[in-house]
Amino acid sequence: MDFMDSVLIIGGGGREHALLKALLRSDRPLCLYAYPGNPGMERDGCMLVDQKIANWDELADWAKMNEINLTVVGPEAPLAEGVVDTFKKHGLLAFGPSKAAAQIESSKVFSKNLMKKYGIPTADFEIFTAKDEALAYIEKKGAPIVVKVDGLAAGKGAVVCAKLGEAKAALEDIFDKKSFGEAGDAVIIEEMMSGEEASVFVLTDGKSYKILPVAQDHKRIGDNDTGLNTGGMGAYAPAPAVDAKVMAVVEKDIIAPTLAAMDKEGARYRGLLYVGLMMTADGPKVVEYNCRFGDPETQAVMPLVRCDWYKLFKECASARGNLSDVGWSVDSGYCVAVVMASKGYPGKFAKGKAITGIDEAEEKGTVDVYFAGVATDRKKENYQTNGGRVLAVSAKGETLADAIAQAYEGVAEIKFDGAAFRRDIGAKGLR
Ligand code: AMP
Ligand code: GLY
Predict the structure, then answer these.
(1) How far apart are the CA of 232 and the centre of ligand 2, in A?
(2) Ligand nearest to the CA of 76
(3) What's the mean pLDDT in 354-374?
(4) Which of 17, 227, 371, 430 has its CA 20 to 30 A from that of 137?
């Protein structure tokens, strides 16, 4: 197997399945492993690390033993814990930011102060560590207002409050009930912005960068952006909300200054920088940064780009890597990813419902199915639901309307008890 490079993917959601499929599309034989991975990744020929791993040192030992050439980290938690630093300490190459650089997501106090210091456009804010002062501030400012916890909160750490009462309740939750634990030791209170949102993914070796097609997520559970916030119910790319003219502004005012700022702060950013934008009346502003690919945006973005992903991830991860050497082309047309969830999500939901129709869906046109909350039954013969967001169905089309139609044809093939999905993914882009 000497001739084949080996890659380990950390994570086991739809995003990691999409990263795997992208690596498989690269014109290069690879030996692929995932920790923990999922049954869809296994189905695509990825070997799952089934060993008990107590910490990242142990995974690094495993990676050394198995001669892994490159590790690609999907989720934010391992990055915030410093998995890339640990692998580096063991002499291993890993794609993703260091623990210090991952603070751009893991601490909103860090990222908001960074933006303030370097003049990067974002919502005006103040930081508080005591409830009384925070209360006095929201009373002075009035509603609408946004309350956010400093640390990682699995997408539940930002509360957009239309009324003052909601902001007070959020502060009680954070400071009195300690619902967010240490993540809520500091809060950010910021102005509410309005406008279209977009997810911009920047691949970087710390200096040069490449921007992926801009995606738009659909955060709310219900059609027409109604109901509770979720991890994301679908995405499409490219999103017309950021055209070439707006992107030029985003690059000049946000992307380039952010990378330069991280370098100046001694936390050179390598890997994937997710810039969550809002197109306000005053121009594009940063809602948040994430230190990793978005889910489900990745499932809509990766199929549009042709490149040797192994080489590209490696250039981003290497100390002397140079991303600008990697060939890259973006397909014309659009890609749409529709998430199928368990009934009840983002609240309580049942697990263990039999899933059928995945093969039939993938036989349709350009349809791909990405596994997330999917398990196999005891005999490892059938798939069943095992999470809130169960899977995502993506398709490509020359027009957005065609991509949407194909994705929903795929969705129609897949059945499980209580399957819930939005029927308007991508519709915003048609307007
Ligand atoms: P965050 O956890 O910072 O990504 O926020 C989650 C979601 O809350 C964002 O995607 C926005 O929809 C919304 N949000 C966050 N901050 C603001 C803000 N300042 N104004 C309006 N909406 C916001
Ligand atoms: N889809 C939003 C996120 O990945 O944070």
Answers:
(1) 6
(2) 2
(3) 96
(4) 227
Q: Measured from the CB, is residue 315 less than 6 Å from ligand 2?
A: no
Q: Which atom of ligand 1 is nearest to the CA of 155?
A: 2
Cα(200) to centroid of ligand 2, in Å? 11
Q: Which of 105, 288, 295 to mutate to test the pocket of ligand 2 (most atoms within 8 A of CB)?
A: 295
Q: What is the pLDDT of residues 51-64, one digit of tens each?
A: 889 999 999 999 99
150 CB within 6 A, ligand 1: no
Q: Whose CA is nearest to atom 4 of ligand 2?
A: 294
Distance of CA 123 from the midpoint of ligand 1 (Å): 10
Return the ligand number nearest the Cα of 337.
2
CATH 3.40.640.10, applies to 130-185:
no
Domain boundaries 7-96, CATH class:
alpha beta
Q: Decide whether any atom of ligand 1 lies within 6 Å of the 276 Cβ.
A: yes
SS (H, E, C) the chain: CCCCEEEEEEECCHHHHHHHHHHHHCCCCEEEEEEECCHHHHHCCCEECCCCCCCHHHHHHHHHHCCCCEEEECCHHHHHCCHHHHHHHCCCCEECCCHHHHHHHHCHHHHHHHHHHHCCCECCEEEECCHHHHHHHHHHHCCCEEEEECCCCCCCCEEEECCHHHHHHHHHHHHHCCCCHHHHCCEEEEECCCCEEEEEEEEECCCCEEECCCEEECCEEECCCEEEECCCCEEEECCCCCCHHHHHHHHHHHHHHHHHHHHHCCCCCCEEEEEEEEEECCEEEEEEEECCCCCCHHHHHHHHEECCHHHHHHHHHCCCCCHHHCCCEECCCEEEEEEEEECCCCCCCCCCCEEECHHHHHCCCCCEEEECCEEECCCCCCEEECCCEEEEEEEEECCHHHHHHHHHHHHHHCECCCEECCCCCCHHHHC
Q: Which ligand is closest in space to the CA of residue 191? A: 1
Atom from ligand 2 closest to the CA of residue 292: 4
CATH 3.40.50.20 spans which residues of the chain? 7-96
Nearest CA to ligand 1 atom 16: 287
pLDDT value at residue 2: 53
**Whole-prediction pTM:** 0.97
- What is the per-residue pLDDT across 302-332, written as a single tens digit (0 to 9) for each? 999 999 999 999 999 998 889 998 999 999 9
Ligand lying nearest the CA atom of residue 289? 1
In the chain, residues under CATH classification 3.30.1490.20 are 130-185
